[in-house]
Design a protein that fits this description.
This protein is α/β, with parallel strands linked by helices. It folds into two domains: 174 residues, Rossmann fold; 84 residues, Rossmann fold (3-Layer(aba) Sandwich). 32% of the residues lie in helices and 21% in strands. The protein contains ten helices and twelve strands. The longest helix is centred in the N-terminal third of the chain and has 14 residues.
Length: 310
């Protein structure tokens, strides 16, 4: 059974539950401390890892897709690699719709297939914590709205690694809706003064379809449902009800039936995310989804960074 992200993970105030769980974070701290990175790079193909240290909802997949588009426009033969997880079929379908995807149980097997097919660059959606692989470029994604939550390691907080680990990576990707990032940038630079920081904005490309002065019920089972709702409200969509499910939630017929009954009661239309829509197996009628891509604020700087490091 999937669980929702604990509320206290993003609680900026000191929380008793987090304090009680702090001793358990020692296990992850020691694991990170004594996990040594393999310095051998794969020579046959350039590799870029798009990962996170905050669990879920940081924009890895949309940035991987946008990065793939950018590199294709530079005339590179590219592919996206994702480790196969049965509960992440939605992301696999989304990537396959927009790019060439290799998805095996082991990332190295996917990389070998990409090499065999003569791809020049492999973009790995997730994989920062797999230290036996050494990438040419490593991007760490953060959601601006959530940032690092309460700042604690799992399970007391949402972090897989503390901020000191940023010095081991190439660049930061901040995803959001144009929020002020001055404090976040300052905090990043304290831990890694020379690291590059790029900002992206969620861009709903079919939003005009929903700007009709109607009320909307929205639902999602993603890592950052708050950002989904904020993206809609900033684009003048009137959200009257938001239903949140656990990340990668597999919807049942009863779930969809209840959502539709509530929407009818509220006299509201229904919107979900593209990933959630892909997880609805039946009874999709009357449910629309927002198609979103990422707009890179300083694309020229990102292009220069990629050319320099590939």
């Amino acid at each position: 059974m999937k669980l929702k992200k604990p509320y206290f993970w993003n609680d900026k105030k000191i929380n008793l539950i987090s304090i009680l769980l702090l001793p358990l974070t020692v296990v992850l701290f020691l694991k990170n401390l004594f996990t040594f990175k393999n310095n051998q790079k794969i020579k046959e193909i350039k590799t870029i890892c798009v990962g996170n240290i905050y669990v879920g909802g940081t924009g890895k997949t949309p940035f991987s897709i946008e990065l793939n588009n950018i590199l294709k426009n530079l005339n590179f033969k590219t592919a996206i690699i994702k480790k196969f997880y049965k509960d992440q079929i939605d992301e696999q379908k989304l990537i396959s719709k927009k790019s060439k995807l290799y998805c095996e149980n082991k990332r190295i097997d996917s990389i070998k297939k990409a090499i065999k097919d003569k791809n020049e660059i492999a973009i790995l959606d997730d994989g920062l914590q797999e230290k036996n692989l050494n990438y040419n470029i490593t991007f760490v994604c953060f959601n601006i709205q959530n940032w690092i939550g309460n700042g604690f390691l799992l399970p007391a907080g949402p972090l897989r690694e503390n901020l000191n680990s940023l010095r081991n990576y190439s660049a930061i990707i901040l995803t959001g809706n144009g929020e002020n990032t001055k404090k976040i940038r300052s905090q990043i630079k304290k831990h890694s003064p020379k690291i590059k920081i790029f900002e992206t904005i969620y861009n709903p490309i079919n939003i005009k379809k929903f700007r009709n002065n109607k009320d909307y019920l929205i639902f999602s089972g993603i890592g950052s449902p708050e950002t989904f709702e904020k993206t809609l409200t900033l684009n003048k969509i009137n959200v009257v009800k938001s239903i949140v499910f656990p990340d990668h939630y597999q919807y049942t017929d009863n779930d969809i039936r209840r959502i539709k009954l509530l929407a009818k009661k509220l006299k509201a239309k229904i919107i979900t995310t593209e990933k959630d829509f892909m997880r609805i197996k039946k009874n999709r009628q009357g449910i629309n989804f927002i198609e979103v891509n990422l707009f890179v604020k300083d694309k020229k700087s990102l292009l220069n960074f990629l050319k320099k490091n590939l």
